[in-house]
Amino acid sequence: METILSVRALRKSYGAFEALRGVSLDFHSGEFVVVVGPSGAGKSTLIRCINRMIDPSSGGIEFDGVRLERARGAELRKRRAKIGMIFQHYNLIGRTNVIKNVLHGRLGHMPFIKSLFGLYSMADRLRAVALLEEIGLLEQKYKRADELSGGQMQRVGICRALMQEPRLLLADEPIASLDPRSAETVMNHLKRMTEQRGICCIVNLHQVDFARRYASRIIGVKSGAVVFDGKPEEFTADMARAIYEGGEADPLRGAAGDSVSDGTDYIEAAATPGGEYAAV
Amino acid sequence: MRVPLSPVSHKLRVTATALGVAAVFTGSAFFLKLDAVKFFSRLQNAGGVLRRFMTIDLSVVGAATAEMIGSLAMAVAALCIGFFISLVLAFLAAGNTAPSKPLAAVIKGSAAVVRAVPALVWLLMIVASVGFGNAGGLFGLLFPTCGYLIKAFITSIEDQGTGSVEAMRAVGASRIEIAIKGVLPGAMGQILAWSAMRVEFNVAESVNLGMVGVSGIGAMLMRALGKYQYGAISAIALVMLITMSALEILVNRLRRGIRGGK
What we know:
The structure holds 2 protein chains of 2 kinds.
Chain A: E1 3-14, E2 17-28, E3 32-36, H1 43-50, E4 58-63, E5 66-67, H2 73-80, E6 83-86, H3 98-103, H4 112-116, H5 122-134, H6 150-163, E7 168-172, H7 180-197, E8 200-205, H8 208-214, E9 217-222, E10 225-230, H9 237-244, H10 251-256, H11 263-271, H12 276-279
Parallel strand pairs in A: 3-8, 3-9, 6-7, 7-8
Antiparallel strand pairs in A: 1-2, 1-4, 4-5, 9-10
Helix pairs in contact in A: 5-6, 6-7, 9-11
Chain B: H1 8-32, H2 36-53, H3 61-93, H4 101-116, H5 119-130, H6 134-159, H7 163-170, H8 175-211, H9 217-226, H10 230-260
Helix pairs in contact in B: 3-4, 3-6, 3-8, 3-10, 4-6, 5-6, 6-8, 7-8, 8-9, 8-10, 9-10
């Protein structure tokens, strides 16, 4: 497997708080990596440092043979155009229709004047249509994005990211705001579409059971450091418990106001079918 | 058992506030040495003045309308130029799109200064430095227009949040693409509504502009006032009233249309 992304001694601190404490990882094409860990463990920071949505404090990020941490301006934009990203809150442009949202994935690949007037090439338009058809949203292509359901929005988000023809896809909690059935649909599409294209996909997830089902590799993060890196079958219940134990308070769980008191309960709840959302 | 509907501290606060407001009003009235007796004795003269205003000199209506159109044109021209200047500066200053924090602070600070100084003062300063005439008037109107629109536009842009901006950055879009493709679609409705609102202020200020010596209906009104031509004053005031009312109806329709289109 070809190494597509190398992260070396990556650190990020916010004042006195260290979100990442020297993370070193290699990612390969065709991998479906799921990063698990409690809220505040640094999952989001890690994923956002990779495409420089957040600037790391120190460390190296080598993507496609280029040192991303040194990239600036147009150079950085050119690299970002090769990295797709999917967000927890989808981040579509609500007033804009579905096909235009998908075509936004081309903005980093075209000259400014063309993008300004929306002059997407016919090949791009056809590809957008093909992606929407593949993900089952072709009928919705002229609907405004804010008229879609959450699951549909996230599928548009996947299409937008794939429209970039990325070599790497980052997904930050892509199913955290979805109901169980939509979550499953989104994960299935994400897994299948990235696998077919041989893309390396890094997904942050809250749900350990989803991680076990979909991942080809699981990375456990706790307090800004990697504490597990291996195959899903090696990711034992004990391991999961260790990661979530003593983790920082989870605001989502706190808001739910249920009886989940510590990480142990959380993992057990997540392991039982249908229980995962009661816990989240 | 007594169940108070609000805590005692809350009641105390309300009472204290009411007393405070009363004290401030009394203090202000004493400071101004308001003389009610003199005011009401002089109020008797008002009837005579008002009677003289009751005549309308229809012969000036044509000229007044032409001058009113001039004032309207000045207001709209200042709005159009101010719109684009404000839009660019607002994108540079809004929290979710600003490229640099110091630049954003400079823009926000300058806009606040421009707003803090009354529009009429800006007009007088510009007219004093670049002279009378439409160009000076237009330039003077730009200050209050931009001061207001920059603040309004920044609010509308910041309302769009950071999510869409983040998504656009992630696909490798440039700042201008982020602004146009990522933020404007959501913000445009509000931005147009603010601008429509600003039309009214601009017309009112462009009338003031005439009063400080630039052309327009304000200048005509000043001349009539100077010569005590009550009929002409009434006619000019009437033209202004009709125009402003029509404008308000139009602007409200526009705003409703914009909202409906959302």
